[in-house]
Amino acid sequence: MKPIVCYVTGRASLGTADSTEELLTRIRAAVAAGVDWVQIRERAMNAHELLALTKSAIATAGNAAHVIVNDRLDVALAAGGAGVHLRGDSVSATDALRWLRQRNAPPDFLVGVSCHSVGEARQAEAAGASYVFFGPVFETPAKKQFGAPQGVQRLAEVCHSVRIPVIAIGGVSGPQGLECLGAGASGIAAIRMFQELGEAELKNVLTQIRGQ
Fold this sequence. Notes:
Elements: E1 4-8, H1 19-33, E2 37-40, H2 47-61, E3 66-70, H3 73-79, E4 83-86, H4 93-102, E5 110-115, H5 118-127, E6 131-134, H6 152-159, E7 166-169, H7 174-182, E8 187-190, H8 192-196, H9 199-210
Parallel strand pairs: 1-2, 1-8, 2-3, 3-4, 4-5, 5-6, 6-7, 7-8
């Protein structure tokens, strides 16, 4: 199976007057480059703004990529998203899956969980999560305040401890992405890589990661 590549959005770091429009431009470039998932991670937005952005992202991605919403299960369902990604302080995966069953959500709706240890990854798998994010694997400005990066060895331990896909995040780019895949990761996720590189450069990086 080809590696999963996920663009995690970060509108605040774009630094433009109309950052929402710039974000949609970045999503369009990422999809054109061949990204598989787009995770809408915009904590500063209210529900109305997030719903509008998610719908626009889904229209932009079309059938080429899945759009997943960070934290807001209600918004993900209302917009017709492909899934929700749960943070450590979000509702639990168990409760989210129970809620989805009660509302007859699509059976292929993804429920992902952010994990920082083997124990958390196993717990997410036992709860029925579709996949986990693990990180930060490498040093990244966004996570510096939380301490040292986890490293590739710790990533490998997590990958070999669960059967569901493990997506590496945190300072991951082209060469680092290959290290993560070599450690057993099913894919990579990144913010800066997609917001700093142009479409042609992204295509080259994704080609390297997938060994095409």
